[in-house]
Amino acid sequence: MATPERIVIAGGGVAAQRCAFKLRELGFDGTLTMVCGEASAPYDRTLLSKDLLAVEPPSIELTLEPAPAYGEAGIELRLDTRATGLDPHARRLRLEGGDETPFDKLVICTGGTAQRPRALVAPGTLVLRELADVAALRDALDACERLIVIGGGFIGGEVASSAAARGLAVTMIEALPAPLAGALGPEVGARVASLHESEGIEVLAGTAAHGCAESANGYEVTLEDGRVIRGDAVVLGAGMAPATEWLAGSGVELDDGIVTDAGCQTSAPDVLAAGDCARWWNPRYATHMRVEHWDTAGRHGATAAAAALGEEVVFAPIPFFWSDQHGVKLQYVGYAPTWDDVQIDDLDPPRSFVARYQRDGELKAVFAASQPRAIAAARRELAATERTI
After folding, report:
1. Which of 49, 104, 107, 358 is deepest in the core (most CB within 10 A)?
2. Is 211 within 8 Å of 225 (Cβ atoms)?
3. Same domain, yes or no, for 135 and 194?
4. How many domains does the chain divide into?
């Protein structure tokens, strides 16, 4: 269909928001509807585990666009409405409550949901993925003295950092040998662990949390090695799962996300996907990848807008992501699922260092603490040496 008249975007994150406004920027003047599962208009999710958990949150604007901007752009914003099913042949999106909305083109940007391992879910355990999660977590931080964070990834690290800044005693439990060791390796992960420990956080790595239960005085988390860790509140930072369960039976190919080509097209005609829920073919690296980070999601949504209008596009970014922990900016650029050498320049460890990941003598990625110039230089180097296949 060369000129769609009705485009529907399922989702309310940065990928969905960028897609909607990019469509108008590209001249689409048909009916445009955003179906958002949350009750809030698209907002900056990166602020949830940082600024909003401070003792006195700064006065910041969360929304990505002022509320009137959607109406002014002719975008119907349907909040607190989740997609529940899809009939790609009839081109109809099923919604909560039994409603349906027709489309000529559908862009799925439903993001992901916080994982809740069954063995670790007890009444009152907390996660942080959506704006609605913030109030419960703030209340818990206000009331507790000792916090247990299960998971040493970016969300776990940022929550632990915010809690430590409040003066709480924090224990971080990480199944891998060190926080972020899966992506960065044990040597660099050890430096991240040292950063947490330098701020008073107890890091228990190399043993997984086996169970979680309420106790008379709070919670008890049992580790695989038999130790029992006690705290007043528990936050699960066990990762994110793509929000795709509602597509079961639709015929859209799923494999750790919605599988697409480099142009955001799914296996179903006129159905595209972008953002955290999408596992797309990146020709730069000749592999499918799913990247759960803000920068990629925003650019992905804009690319999907062009693809929905029939433009031939190729989404082949160099992945980039960042985190703020203990006043240190942690940044990563590149793609290094494997490497045979990592060169680490310790400038002022653990608050300042640069790690360069290489394979067969070629730079593949750089991770740095408090070194934005090194990241910028690495991005230029990677762009010059890595060519899209």
Report:
1. 107
2. no
3. yes
4. 3
